[in-house]
C-alpha cells in the first residue's frame, strides 16, 4: 500500500507529481465553475488523475475493510472524484446550453489546433445538436407550411454573456489590462498586482484566465 | 386572435417551472392548423397585392403571426427538452412509469437518445488509460463523510454495494451506508438521510 | 458556487493535530502525511483532521490565530480601518466553523472565540454592504477588493455582479437610445417572406 509512487509521467519527459496534478485540476474546476464561457479542456490532467484513482482503488481493496488507512484513502478519493465529476458536469452544462455557439467556434479552433473541447466532448456536442434538430423537425417543423419548415440553428443559438462581472485574484503582476469603456468611449488601463483581487467584466481578462495569470474567485 | 393558442401553451409550461406537464399534442395540432390556414390565406392574397395595396398590411400581419407561432412552438419544445434532460440526471436512464407518461412518444425517443449520448460520453472518460468511465450523475455534493445513516421511505428490494455486500431496503428500515453509493436513491426519494 | 463548495476548498488547508494512535506515513494523492505518533503533533489537511476527530482518533491543535487576544486585535483593527484588513488566512471562517463545530473542547475559550469571530464577520459584512453601495453609486464597472476571503466574496454573489451587469446594460441602452428612436417608423417595412411564395 505504501509503495504508491506519486510520480506521474506526462507525455513530455517532464515529471509532474500527483499533488501538482490535483492542484491544477482544482484550479481548472474553480475557473470553469466561475467563467461564463467554456474554457480550454484539461484532459491530460483528468486522465492522469483517473489513473491515480484507479491505482489507489486497487491498493485499497488489498487492505482490510475496517483499516483506518483505507477509510482515509477512500475519503480522499471521494473528494477528488467530486472535483472531477463537478468539473466535467459543469463543462457539459455549458456545452448543452451554448451548443450551437460552441460548435461554430470550435470548428474554427480545430483548424488552428487550439480546440477547447476533448474529442469525446466534441462528439457529444455534435450528437446533442443533431438530436435536438431531429426532434424539433419531427414534432413541429415538418408539419409547418411551406418555407416555415426551415430551421435556422444560428437563430436559436444561446450565447454566454462575456460582459458579465466576475471576481478574480491575480496570480502574478500584470500591467496594462485595458478595460473598454463603451459607454464613455474611453478606455481605462489598470494594473493587477500579484495577489490583488478585483471585480470587473470577464471579457478583457478572459485570456488571462486561460493562461493562468489570474484565478477566478 | 392570431397566435393566441400558442401563448396559452407557453403560459401552461411557465406555470409549473419545476415540474413537467403532460405533452399537449391537441393544442399543438390546433396551432399547426392555424398556421396552415394563415399560410393559405397569405398565398391567395399575396398574388393580389399588386392590384390591391391595402392587402399588403394584412399579409404582413399574418406573416408575423406565422413567425410568432413558429418561434413559440420551438420555445415550448425547447423548454420541455430542458426539463426532460433533468429527468435523466435525476432518475437515470429508466423513467418511472408515472413520469414516462408525461412525455409524448417523440419526446421519449429524444430522452432515450439524450440518455444514450450521455452514457457513451461517460463511458469514454478515462478509456485511454483503461478506466471504466465515470458516472457523472453521482458525487453531486462535496463529500462530508464516507457513510451516512438513512431510513427507507419505500420497499426497494436488494441493493448491492461495490464491496459485494447486499442490503435489503424495506420501508422504514434504517441503514448505515456508503454515502457515495446511496446518493442516487436519496435523490429519488427511496432513502432519506437521518441528520 | 454554493457555500458547501467554498467549505470544501477550505478543507484543503493544512492544520495541526495530536493523534492518539501510531501509524507509519500515509501517502495520499495530495501529499505525504505522518508518521503518526500518539501524543505528538503533526500536520494534515483539515478534512482529515475533522475526519479523525469524528472518529475520536485525535485532538485538533487550534491554529495560532484562534486566540482571544489575537482575535481582539483583529477586531479592533477591522473597526478602525476604512478598508478590509488582512485576515489570518483565506479561509478563516471555514476553519472556525469546522474546528469549533467538531472540536470545540480542543479550543480554549471556544464560546468567546466564536463570538469574536462572529463580530469580525459582521463588521466586515457591513463594510462590504457600504462599499457595494459606493461602488454602484460611482458607476459600478470596476472595483478592487483586496483581503476579502472567498466566503465573503461568495456572499455577495450573485447580487453584486448582476447589479453591475444590469447597470452596464442600462448605460448601453441610454447610449443607444437616440439612434433607436429613428427606427421607430420603419419597423413595418422589414420584409417577411410568406408573401412571396
From TrEMBL, chain A:
CDD domains in the cross-refs: GINS_A_Sld5, GINS_B_Sld5
This protein's name: DNA replication complex GINS protein SLD5
Pfam families, sorted: Sld5, SLD5_C
PANTHER family associated with the record: DNA REPLICATION COMPLEX GINS PROTEIN SLD5, SLD5 PROTEIN
Subcellular location(s) of the protein: Nucleus
Organism of origin: Chilo suppressalis
Domain GINS subunit: 52-139
Similarity remark: Belongs to the GINS4/SLD5 family.
InterPro entries according to UniProt: GINS_A (IPR021151), GINS_bundle-like_dom_sf (IPR036224), GINS_Sld5 (IPR008591), SLD5_C (IPR031633), Sld5_GINS_A (IPR038749)
From TrEMBL, chain B:
InterPro entries xref list: GINS_A, GINS_bundle-like_dom_sf, GINS_Psf1, PSF1_C
CDD domains assigned to the protein according to its UniProt record, in alphabetical order: GINS_A_psf1, GINS_B_Psf1
Gene3D superfamilies linked to this entry: 1.20.58.1030
Major subcellular site: nucleus
Keywords (A to Z) from UniProt: DNA replication, Nucleus
Domain GINS subunit: 40-125
Family: Belongs to the GINS1/PSF1 family.
Subunit structure: Component of the GINS complex.
Function: Required for correct functioning of the GINS complex, a complex that plays an essential role in the initiation of DNA replication, and progression of DNA replication forks. GINS complex seems to bind preferentially to single-stranded DNA.
Name of protein: DNA replication complex GINS protein PSF1
Automatic annotation (TrEMBL), chain C:
Domain (DNA replication complex GINS protein PSF2 N-terminal) ranges: 2-61
Record flagged with keyword Nucleus: yes
Matches recorded under SUPFAM superfamilies: GINS helical bundle-like, PriA/YqbF domain
Compartments where located: Nucleus
Signal peptide span: none
Record keyword Transcription present: no
Keywords (A to Z) from UniProt: DNA replication, Nucleus
Chain ranges of the GINS subunit domain: 65-169
Family: Belongs to the GINS2/PSF2 family.
Subunit (UniProt): Component of the GINS complex.
Name of the protein: DNA replication complex GINS protein PSF2
